[in-house]
Amino acid sequence: MSAAPALPPSAPSASELEHLRRELLDTWHQPTGPIGWLMNTDHKVIGLRYIVTTFVNFALAGILAAIMRLQLSRPDNTLVGPDFYNQLFTMHGTAMMFLFAVPIMGGFGTYLVPLMVGTREVPFPRLNAYGYQVFVVGSLLLWIAFLLNVGPDVGWFAYTPLSGPEYGTGKRVDVWAQMITFTEISALVVAVNLATTILKMRAPGMSLNRIPLFCWAMLVQSFMVIFAMPSVMLDSGMLAMDRLVGTHFFNPAEGGDPLLWQHLFWFFAHPEVYIIFIPALGFISSIMAPFARRPVFGYTAMVLSMVSTAFIGFGVWVHHMFATGLPQMGESFFTAASMLISIPTGVQIFCWLATLWSGRLHLKTPLLFVLGFFAVFVIGGLTGVMLAAVPFNLQAHDTFFVVAHLHYVLIGGSVFPLFGAFYYWFPKWTGRLLGERLGQLNFWLMFVGFNLTFFPLHILGMRGMPRRVYTYPAEMGWDRLNMLASVGAMILAVGILVFVVNVASSLKRGALSGPDPWRADTLEWAAASPPLPFNFEHIPVVRSREPLWTRTEGDPIVVGMRSDQREILVTQPVDAEPDHREVLPEPGIAPFLVTLATAETFVLGIFTPRAYVVGAVMAFVGLFVWLWPKGDPHDDVKAAIEDAPPGGVA
Amino acid sequence: VSARAVLDVSHLPTLRNDSRANLWWGNAWMLVIESVMFALVVTTYFYLRMNQAEWPPPGANIPDLALPSVNLAVMVAMAGVAFWLDRAAVAMDRWATIARSLVLIALAVAHLVIRVIVWRQLDFDWAAHAYGSIVWGILALHTTHLLTGTLETSAMTFAMSRQIHEKDFLDVRCTVAYWYFIVGWWVVLWLVLYVSPHVVHP
Fold first, then answer.
1. Backbone angles phi and psi of A163, in degrees to 5
2. Counting Cβ atoms within 10 Å, is residue B52 exposed (0-12), middle (13-18) or buried (19+)?
3. SS3 string of A587-615?
4. To the nearest 10°, the Cα dihedral for B164, B165, B170, B175?
5. Of A222, A237, A186, whose CA–CA distance to A46 is shortest?
6. For a Cys staple, B165 with which of A3, A243, A632, B82, CB 3.0–4.6 Å?
7. Which pLDDT does position A648 carry in this prediction?
8. Which DSSP letter does residue A163 get?
């Protein structure tokens, strides 16, 4: 580093530290009350709000799945009719993908990334607040529409022409299309914040080759969001226009093309699988290091694998369209690309196995979920390689085999690591550990329940049972395996209920964790549990890839930051050398005004194009308030800096 | 008091008016996102064209190249003015910044007027056929960005005329980057909308 840590001016004494802490608390204080709730910009508060909101969405979508499993448990069942069943599977898939899986990863990133890289906040905190608010609007839109019997009913990917104006009558599809807009704005906002945090705000000394693997995962994921989300926004925008103002993008009678919908959708939605999966890879690496008591094996290979997965992930979308009659030459290319992606995944699996092999395992709940990931995800990966082959794909297309595969990949690859992450980081959020005995029960119920539910679906699929059909006749011989799957689903649901009970009881009575219960290696564990609003009294200086494992009493710290302003340290992207200090804006109401404008535009835009004009005016007003220059906070108190003690902790 | 090493950052600047600033990065990410959007719209145009024996479809007029090209020249001139504005922002020259912003706004308004005239020459609307949908869609998407840029530059210029702080010049530089993005994509879209139907036949 250019500015080598110097010895004196010496580090602050205990009383100076206490004074500093009080001043920082005052500076980083967030507004309170109901209006203050809307103004809050603390990345930890926003991150936890994402996590709680998305978990509610997960539970609701899970209840819909349980109703479907009840319906399918017996042949010729009449618990629900075909129309409601269509809404059930569409709502389940839509909510799980758009309202749970993507945003919960963003929520974890929003909470953890600034702590892990050793900074105080994300670079655009008001934008962050706005992103969460539009996400809530999108969630409410979907669930309220469902309650009003306007729930989308054309599958989570809303294929045209079924979703077009001719067949998708009513407003159900429009609700789906606009929900997309809200959730994708939110995902993009999170991605921009996290990518900038990781590239520009790392603690001094945290060069690219020292970034925690979770932050690498979130960086790769943010890039994927930035390149994938515009595709579905364009796609759903064109669908909304076909439905509202009579354009013909997907209407073959007037030169449009329904397959255009599928191309644009899967150009987003296959990368989306990795947008969900890559953060989970970061969870696994984060959990594995402290629970195997060694750094994760093959850091560089892990990083390169994630990066190459992201690149290849953009070149496989057509494998969702093998049944559409595309040229065989093209299909071969996408088969090869789809199989190719198993190589970086395999590299990572072997790196983790090497880590476990050579580590001293500490078999607590977080690691159990990681081990569960291995078992489940590898099965999902293998059926993925099967489905990448065109002849098998055509045979299994639209059967329960695909349902089994995608749940093995998504639940195995993402939800198991996610639950491990809950157990791992809950002490950081709350200062209390989740109960270990309930945790083990939670894991085993989920693991057994999951496999009982989804393994039989492979067999049902190969026996020809189609997806998205509300019932089946008794003579098909599918009833026993379906009953088994339904029993499994109930066990899985009980497992998740155990988790909720564990959270509820641990919030009040859980064992106190202290800052670092797992003796982990990354910087978030150097902050208090829960962290104070400013995260760290002093920005740390990083000298290794595992800063907490190589920590000594004499480790250098950053001094000279203003504590009477929301000041952050901006560093250079590659070597994280300190570059300049920036003051973040105070919390304000402007993001909420823009949220109202966004909500007006896209909710009323379901009914009339005029809503867009009104929304544009509202947004202009909101943005005017938001962006009106407030002056440079460094201007007014320059004299105070000169009065500060040497080393300038003031 | 332990003799603990410290890294003193109090001497570091509190402002960077260039690509080292976080705001510059945030703006750049937005332009990348919107550029992906434009790239996909162009892809969609050629995807729809791929299905057609005749493009534009029978009955739709091939746009005349003359006036759009004049308007392209106005657009390219805006990039020059934006560059000139950028110099003023780097020099932190308040009144030059305001004056050049006003020139930029005037050119943008002139371009918008010509664009509307060209637009009205189309003898089909968005609901006529898929060609109409994509042409109107592209025009609407780019015009929305152009209007946003014009309004933003106007509001910024108004704010600077009342009071100015050193860090506001970073906003100017980000606005300039936005104008490069607007102009750059219009060059591509001019090729797609007005040139490609003349030179490439399916």
1. -90, -5
2. middle
3. CCCHHHHHHHHHHHHHHHCCCCCHHHHHH
4. -20
5. A186
6. A632
7. 39
8. T
CA distance B120 to B107: 20
Q: Do B7 and A246 touch (CB under 8 A)?
A: no
* Residue B7, phi then psi, degrees to nearest 5: -110, 105
Q: Which residues contact A411 (CB under 8 A, 6 or more apart)?
A: A376, A450, A454
Q: pLDDT value at position A643?
A: 42
Q: What is the pLDDT of residue A632?
A: 64
Q: Which of B20, B22, B37 to mutate to test the interface with A (most CBs of A within 10 A)?
A: B22
What is the dihedral angle through the alpha carbons of A87, A93, A98, A101, rounded to the nearest 10 degrees? 150
If DSSP codes are grouped into helix, strand and coil, which group holds residue A625?
A: helix
Task: Write down the pTM of the prediction.
Answer: 0.94
What SS3 string covers chain B?
A: CCCCCEEECCCCCCCCCCCCCHHHHHHHHHHHHHHHHHHHHHHHHHHHHHCCCCCCCCCCCCCCCHHHHHHHHHHHHHHHHHHHHHHHHHCCCHHHHHHHHHHHHHHHHHHHHHHHHHHHCCCCCCCCCHHHHHHHHHHHHHHHHHHHHHHHHHHHHHHHHHCCCCCHHHHHHHHHHHHHHHHHHHHHHHHHHHHHHHHCCC
Global ipTM:
0.95
Average pLDDT score over residue span A483-494: 98
CA angle, A186 then A190 then A194, to 5°: 175
Touching B: A residues 5-64, CB under 8 Å? 5-13
What span, in angstroms and rounded, lies between the C-alpha atoms of A149 and A81? 13
Residue type, B139: L
Cis omega (within 30 of 0) for bond into A547: no
For residues A182 and A186, give the distance between their C-alpha atoms in angstroms, rounded to a whole number.
6
Residues in A touching B40 (Cβ below 8 Å)? 230-231, 234, 264, 267
Q: What is the C-alpha separation between A582 and A575, in angstroms, rounded? A: 19
Q: What is the DSSP letter of A532?
A: P
